[in-house]
Amino acid sequence: MEQNDTYFTLKGNSEGFYKEKGSKFLAFAYVLSNEDDVKKTVSELKKKYYDARHHCYAYVLGNQSEKYRANDDGEPGHSAGDPILGQIRSNKLTNTLIVVVRYFGGTKLGISGLIKAYKTAASDAIATNLIIEKLIISELSIQFEYPQLNQVMKLVKDHDLEIITQKMEISCEMKLGVRLSLEEEVRTRLLEMHKISLALPKRLREGDA
What we know:
Layout (H helix, E strand, L loop, with lengths): L5 E5 L3 E7 L2 E9 L3 H14 L5 E8 L5 E5 L9 H10 L5 E8 L6 H18 L3 E15 L3 H10 L3 E6 L3 E9 L3 H10 L3 E13 L1
Antiparallel strand pairs: 1-7, 2-3, 3-6, 4-5, 4-6, 7-9, 7-10, 8-9
Helix pairs in contact: 2-3
């Protein structure tokens, strides 16, 4: 089975807006990759919009969308964070945080009204952005003797590998970027080559699809 090595995320940060019965819903979408940045961003928005009634948010993180959370921030349970999270998931996004800041307009919207408002505000923030596809790149470090250079370069060409860094002396070192779905095949070919050592561990990063 071929390993999935791409994911979808937003191109950059964006904003959305929704208004209902005097309440204003300001939505902010961010491209983030870890929970520390999520906490920092939410904290900054709470300071900036300190006079707002609620700061609700949801996020999905990780190449496999393995980390996620929804926060209602005082709104009735599942009426704010979940609708925001639903918009992130319905667009198959990851590494994405959406915060919706609510200014209360004096009239209660009810559970269904809140769900619609937070969903629409989050959707607007996504709609004003651009969804892009990213590659998951595995970085492999190898060491070899100079006579093996032609073999290595043929492998680089055959699999369209990225040469991230290289040190060409009698004893050579090279760091290669390979699509995650091709990693096992590339590793096998490297290990079959004479006098080529493969350093561990690998590191994953993203690239343009």
